[in-house]
Design goal:
The chain is an alpha/beta fold and 398 residues long. It has 18 helices and 8 strands. The chain has an 8-stranded parallel sheet, covered by helices on one side.
């Protein structure tokens, strides 16, 4: 697709977004139930546009019921545009004493606040680091937990002092008759520290000793090199054709034929992965990663530390270097239990999920794939209508 045609396609997408924004506003006014409003939120979020994210961020701080506001915050995170973080942070800054402790009279606001902080983390909004770090000194344990998890996603070293202090407090021994209310946060503080630094330390003493040894100066490793896929990846697609940028934007990760897409088109997609070809050529063109053979994963990780690497097949050696495994021969009706156990093992040891691709034109197989995903936390499934992947199945409803 040439540049002029791409501009035309994006212009049509812009017009569609404007129409959906108007429809959203009308629905929010006329809806008779929270369910109708939440459905409207999900529909608008599917456009994955900045304007949609900004509109939904405004709903978070609005007088709508709790469930609607939480759905809006989660939708902003799903859209994934960091520029929508500012209105969410502005809302968090209005919370006052709720930032310091749970307030019985503000139970609804509590859950919305947690959703807003969760979305800020999903957006990787580094401008929120100072505010989130200040929230680590609090008696509002649920909100503090969301702040810790958000900081683990943002991975800004500015939060290290605050995280280390909280990690120490969360692991402090409990005295007779005394309960350490921060103890439930210990797994989250540990995960955040490891995610930010790439270190595999555990105890507060180990962390403090290491932190002093580097003089508090941290080189944050590429997130892709830490293993696994970004946590916001929930759905993926495989497409062998050309174009369909607007439809592909509805997915969190897409596997594509690298010969069919320009740099401009790739810049408008979420995590495009080259299904074939030279990895360097794919990265130079603007792909977020590539598919490789399992025995190539370790070397390619060294060469491309910032790439999302997807290794074909079940291979224990690849799991430590790849972000995901690609399986194309799993039986949808009766998957091999031994293979599933191996894939589960790769996930438990290295956080490496599996992208399972099935070929079927039967609608019931879409439901079967969804059911299989629900049974296995490590599995993401996509059903393609043909082996050439010439069409795109719409993503499952959120």
């Amino acid at each position: 697709m040439n540049a002029a045609l791409l501009v035309l396609v994006l212009a049509f997408a812009q017009d569609d977004t404007e129409a959906q924004l108007k429809e959203f506003a009308d629905t929010m006014k006329s809806a008779k139930s929270d369910g109708e409003r939440i459905k409207a939120i999900d529909t608008l979020a599917a456009t994955r546009s900045l304007k949609a994210a900004q509109k939904l961020a405004g709903v978070v701080g609005s007088p709508y019921p709790e469930a609607v506001r939480i759905a809006a915050a989660d939708a902003v995170g799903k859209i994934g545009d960091t520029r929508a973080g500012a209105p969410l942070l502005a809302y968090v800054n209005t919370l006052g004493n709720l930032l310091q402790s749970e307030v019985p009279s503000k139970k609804d606001e509590q859950k919305v606040a947690e959703a807003a902080v969760r979305a800020i983390g999903t957006l990787r909004d580094r401008s929120a680091t100072v505010r989130l770090t200040s929230m680590l000194i609090s008696a509002n344990i649920p909100l503090m937990g969301e702040a810790v998890r958000a900081l683990g996603k943002i991975r800004d070293p500015q939060c290290m002092d605050g995280l280390l202090k909280l990690h120490y407090a969360a692991n402090a021994p409990e005295g007779v008759g005394a309960t350490n209310v921060r103890k439930p946060l210990a797994p989250d503080t540990l995960a955040a520290l490891r995610r930010i630094t790439g270190q595999r330390l555990s105890t507060p003493d180990e962390w403090n000793k290491w932190y002093r040894s580097v003089g508090g100066r941290i080189v944050v490793p590429p997130e892709e090199s830490l293993g696994g896929l970004p946590p916001e990846v929930k759905q993926f697609a495989v497409y062998g054709g050309k174009g369909e940028v607007a439809t592909l934007r509805k997915f969190d990760l897409v596997l594509l034929n690298p010969e069919n897409y320009t740099r401009e088109e790739l810049s408008n997609l979420f995590r495009p992965i080259a299904m074939s070809g030279d990895p360097k050529a794919a990265m130079d063109r603007g792909f977020a990663g590539f598919v490789c053979e399992p025995d190539q994963a370790a070397d390619l990780r060294k060469r491309f530390p910032r790439a999302l690497i997807v290794a074909r097949g079940v291979a224990k050696a690849a799991a430590g270097s790849a972000n995901a495994l690609l399986i194309e021969d799993l039986d949808l009706k009766k998957p091999d239990e031994k293979v599933l156990d191996e894939l589960k093992d790769a996930y438990s040891k290295n956080d490496t999920p599996t992208l399972a691709v099935f070929v079927s034109d039967k609608k019931e197989d879409l439901q079967s794939a969804s059911a299989l995903d629900k049974q296995h936390a490590f599995l993401f499934s996509y059903v393609s209508a043909d082996k050439e992947h010439s069409t795109i199945n719409s993503p499952a409803a959120p």
